[in-house]
Amino acid sequence: MEKSPEIKNNIEMVKEKIRQKISIAVKNAPDLETIQLKSINKNEDQEIIELIKKATITVNNLYEFKLLMEILEINDETINDTLSHENAHANKATIIGVEHLNYNLAIFIEGNDYVYQPYTGLGYPDEWSPEKIKEMRKKIIKAPEEYNNKLSPIDKERLGNL
After folding, report:
1. Where is 27: in which H helix or E strand?
2. Exposure pattern of 67-101 as b/e (b: 16+ CB <10 Å)?
3. Bridge partners, residue 107, by sequence
4. DSSP string covering 70-116, please?
5. Would you say 100 and 122 are in contact if contact means Cβ atoms under 8 Å apart?
6. Residue 152: pLDDT over 70
């Protein structure tokens, strides 16, 4: 089935916006080793967060997330696995009353290459206690297993830190 010219134009506009976001994130991509060294010193958490935010590409939905990864020339198997994995987090969040905000891809430099860390943006209700947030975070982090997907190393680390 052929896409209408209007749909093709809209897709091209979305791709161009994503390319612009990629350009900014790449310019701000921190060295992964630097981030890991800074993370050892807990006093630098806010600095790390700011570095990562500047190197993060945020999109609104799964289609844009897929386009983002295609533009970065990530292989199809990794794209499909990442979409499934991050969507599992988003679905679980929505089911248990946590707002799914967006999909994100942080870019880091490792040696002479770029590496990517996907994550899902979430918004917890203000009225929830810290204990309830912790309980719900665990459920959201474990969600990929419910969809026959594996937990990522970061998911496992976050579970261990809760």
Report:
1. helix 5-27
2. bbbeebebeeeebeebbebbbbbbbbbeeeebebe
3. 116
4. HHTT--HHHHHHHHHHHHHHHHHHHHTTPEEEEEEEEEEEETTEEEE
5. yes
6. yes
The CA-based diameter of the chain, rounded to the nearest angstrom, is 55
SS3 for 126?
Answer: coil
Residue 119 DSSP symbol: E
At 56 the three-state DSSP class reads strand
Asked whether residue 2 carries a pLDDT value surpassing 80, the answer given is no
Here the tokens at position 75 are 């292989």
Q: Which residue has the tokens 């990517």?
A: 116
Q: Quick one: DSSP state of residue 60? A: S
Exposure of 43 in the CB half-sphere (CA atoms within 13 A):
0
Predicted model pTM: 0.86
